[in-house]
Write a structure and sequence with these properties.
Length: about 260
């Protein structure tokens, strides 16, 4: 074996960037689950005392958020690098005709990538933007300053986007891993480009409705809006995530099953 080929374009695109991508991805999604399943319910159980704990706000939450948002960028960057550097990835992605398992795989990885990109946008444009307001307010209050009246709304916007990301993560990871190792298996799935597009469009419309809902586009973000019931508890968000996965899985089988 030629040592140089361990780091040639094929190795970089197919292996190294993929490996870094999975490392960055578990860091990001691990912290997403930590926030949703551990920190938020943990602080809520403490009530005001929990919120006032300087150690949590400044020493832990800001560090966790740093890793969270940069791991999201690293996952996004390495994911895009796989598509650009792995030889023929883009070519294979764009050019399939007939009844092909590759059409089904491409539709699957497209859903995974679009969910991942939406989640990364949520991290930077909603969660982090609003968390900065929440952290600044908590630090200010701890130092004896005036409370910012907008902090509660900012916290709620961040919470809705974070729970939406938890909902998406279950399907996102299914298509990330499943596209190449499950859907590309021609015995199970094959699709004409028309079928693959149909699957893609229906899936993306469902996901877009959920995303708009998390942004409060259907009646605002206030508690009491019935459209937001899926985000009001961790349990509701997990159930919604599993139901979304089941719906997308059934669509995959019905539209693209061999
Ligand atoms: C942020 C946007 C993302 C993009 C653009 C992206 C892109 C990609 C691409 C192009 C692949 C290669 C799939 C193939 O072989 O055809 C891939 C695989 C994968 N991605 Fe992502 N991804 C993203 C987010 C994530 C996240 C958040 C995770 C969480 C862990 C993740 C985990 C994985 C895994 C486990 C694989 C499978 C590697 C393999 O088995 O070969 N990705 N991703």
């Amino acid at each position: 074996m030629n040592a140089a080929s361990l780091f040639d374009q094929a190795a970089l695109g197919n292996f190294w960037f993929r490996y870094l991508h999975v490392l960055a991805g578990i860091t990001w999604i691990g912290l997403l689950y930590y926030f949703n399943l551990v920190q938020v319910p943990g602080l809520a159980a403490y009530g005001d005392e929990g919120k006032a704990r300087n150690i949590t706000i400044t020493q832990i939450a800001t560090r966790a958020l740093w890793w969270f948002r940069w791991a999201a960028i690293a996952t996004l960057a390495t994911g895009i690098l796989i598509t650009g550097v792995a030889p023929d990835y883009m070519n294979d992605f764009m050019n399939h005709v007939g009844d092909s398992p590759s059409n089904a795989k491409n539709a699957g990885i497209s859903v995974g990538m679009i969910l991942g990109i939406t989640m990364a946008a949520n991290v930077w444009m909603i969660i982090w933007k609003n968390q900065k307001v929440v952290i600044a307010n908590a630090t200010n209050v701890l130092n004896g300053g005036e409370a910012n009246p907008d902090a509660a709304t900012a916290g709620r916007r961040a919470m809705l986007a974070s729970r939406q990301n938890m909902i998406f993560s279950i399907s996102m990871l299914f298509y990330m891993v499943g596209a190449a190792h499950f859907i590309e298996n021609g015995d199970l799935f094959a699709a004409t480009s028309g079928e693959a597009n149909t699957f893609l469009i229906i899936s993306l419309v469902i996901c877009a409705v959920l995303q708009l809902n998390a942004l409060g586009k259907f009646g605002g973000i206030k508690a009491g809006n019935k459209m937001l019931v899926i985000y009001e508890t961790q349990k509701n968000a997990i159930i919604t995530g599993v139901v979304l996965w089941a719906v997308l899985f059934i669509l995959t089988v019905v539209i693209m099953g061999a």
